[in-house]
C-alpha cells in the first residue's frame, strides 16, 4: 500500500492524489485505506516516515563505513544522490511544493515534511562534527550554517538532476560537491 501511495504522491503531488487513486492502484477499498491510515494526511505521513527512515539509514551507513572524514563526506553525498536515483518518487514526495509549511492547506503533512528536512540537517550537523578535518573546530553557529548550506546544496542539486535529460552520475556530483565543501571545512578556525 505504501509503495503504491509513494509512487502516486511522487507522480501527482499531494494535492493531486486522492484516496480513490491509491485504492484503485492497490486493488482494495478506500475504507480499508482509511482504516489503516485514518486520512490522506495519515497515508502521506506514513509514506514520509518510511522514506525518511530508508534515506537516513542509507546515508548514515555510507558515512559510517568511510575510512576518513573526507571520504565520509563523499560517501554520504553518493548515498544521497544514488538513493534518489533508485527511488525517483521518493524525492518528489519529500519536496512536494504543496507540502511547504507556508501552504495553509497542507496541514500536518507539511509539518512532517519540515521534520524530514530538520532530521537531515541534524544528521548533517552530527556528521560534520564527527568529521571535521584534524585540528579543526567549529562552534554551534558554524555547524548550523554548514549543515543548512549542505542541505540546501544537496536539495538544489537533486532538483537540477531531476530536470536535466542526462544528469551527471551521483559519484560526479558527490565528488564536485565534496571537493568544494572540503576546501571550506579546511579553513575553519583551530581551537
UniProtKB/TrEMBL annotation:
Chain residues forming the annotated DNA-binding region: 18-37
GO MF annotation list: DNA-binding transcription factor activity; transcription cis-regulatory region binding
Xref: InterPro entries: Homeodomain-like_sf, HTH-type_TetR-like_transc_reg, HTH_TetR, Tet_transcr_reg_TetR-rel_C_sf
GO biological process terms on file: negative regulation of DNA-templated transcription
Protein name, UniProt field: TetR/AcrR family transcriptional regulator
Domain of life: Bacteria
Pfam families, per database record: TetR_N (PF00440)
Key words, A-Z: DNA-binding, Transcription, Transcription regulation
Domain HTH tetR-type, residue spans: 1-55
Amino acid at each position: 500500500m505504501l509503495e503504491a501511495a509513494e509512487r502516486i504522491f511522487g507522480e501527482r503531488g499531494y494535492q493531486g492524489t486522492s484516496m480513490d487513486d491509491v485504492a484503485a492502484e492497490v486493488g482494495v477499498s478506500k475504507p480499508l485505506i482509511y482504516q489503516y491510515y485514518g486520512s490522506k494526511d495519515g497515508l502521506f505521513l506514513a509514506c514520509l516516515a518510511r522514506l525518511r527512515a530508508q534515506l537516513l539509514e542509507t546515508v548514515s551507513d555510507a558515512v559510517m563505513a568511510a575510512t576518513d572524514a573526507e571520504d565520509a563526506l563523499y560517501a554520504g553525498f553518493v548515498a544521497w544522490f544514488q538513493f534518489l536515483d533508485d527511488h525517483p518518487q521518493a524525492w518528489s514526495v519529500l519536496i512536494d511544493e504543496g507540502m511547504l509549511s507556508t501552504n495553509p492547506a497542507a496541514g500536518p503533512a507539511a509539518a512532517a515534511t519540515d521534520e524530514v528536512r530538520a532530521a537531515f540537517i541534524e544528521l548533517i550537523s552530527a556528521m560534520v562534527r564527527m568529521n571535521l578535518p584534524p585540528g579543526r573546530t567549529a562552534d554551534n553557529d558554524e555547524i548550523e550554517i554548514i549543515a543548512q548550506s549542505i542541505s540546501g546544496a544537496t536539495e538544489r542539486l537533486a532538483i537540477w538532476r531531476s530536470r536535466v535529460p542526462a544528469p551527471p552520475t551521483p559519484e560526479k556530483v558527490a565528488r564536485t560537491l565534496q571537493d568544494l565543501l572540503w576546501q571550506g571545512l579546511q579553513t575553519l578556525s583551530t581551537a
